[in-house]
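Posted in: Structural Biology > Protein-Ligand Complexes

Title: Requesting predicted complex, molybdenum atom in pocket

I'd be grateful if someone could produce the 3D structure tokens for the following input. Sequence and ligand are given below.
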Amino acid sequence: MSKERYIAAKQRWAEKQKAAGVRASEERSAQRLPPGQTLTEGFPVLDLGVRPDASPRAWTLALSGLVEAPEVLDWAAFGALPQVEDVSDFHCVTTWSRYDCRWGGVAFTTLYERVKPKPEARFVYFTGADGYSTNVPLERCLDDDVLVATHFNGLPLTAEHGAPARVIIPKLYAWKGAKFVNGIEFLAHDRLGFWEVRGYSNTADPWTEDRYA
Ligand SMILES: Nc1nc2c(c(=O)[nH]1)N[C@H]1C(S)=C(S)[C@@H](COP(=O)(O)O)O[C@H]1N2
Ligand SMILES: [Mo]
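-- Reply #1 --
Done. Output follows.
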């Protein structure tokens, strides 16, 4: 008798665990929107208001700093690199998020393999042609969703969204991705970027609402 109750109790316990497990994973996927963010269907423009020349012919991307093989890529050389597409969510620190952005361009890892950063390189400093800059630890740039994008949802980037190329680092607040990117410099020591010197968090993790330093 007590054995039957024990077995029944264990069974109920197992079912409860199973249900709780399902609930937990449903909650995790529902937690796609980081705390404090509001979902938008639109695509607001957030920048310094400077519109640099967006024409691909005028564009170069300098890969420099602590690397074995520094180089300056022009549009043709960049376009000849392996191209990838990746879908990710976009979280702006001013509290709007946009789901399912389909970015096309060159994976950061492709650029990394080309320039061969030296062992002492641990940070990356990105610059934009509008005078913008931002800094990210190298290891955060090596995620498989980080890219230098030239395309958004299958179309070339528009001028206001960073043409001809912008950096996308989906797991960090979007200010860590430089629009109009023209330089990627590998550094041994961290160097704060435009917003990082103006009180934004250096680490910029949307999931811990790591907005301001
Ligand atoms: N060059 C450059 N890149 C930039 C910015 C900028 O002002 N200049 N603003 C950043 C911020 S704060 C955000 S939220 C995103 C906005 O990208 P969007 O204008 O395409 O929405 O770009 C980031 N990259
Ligand atoms: Mo932002």
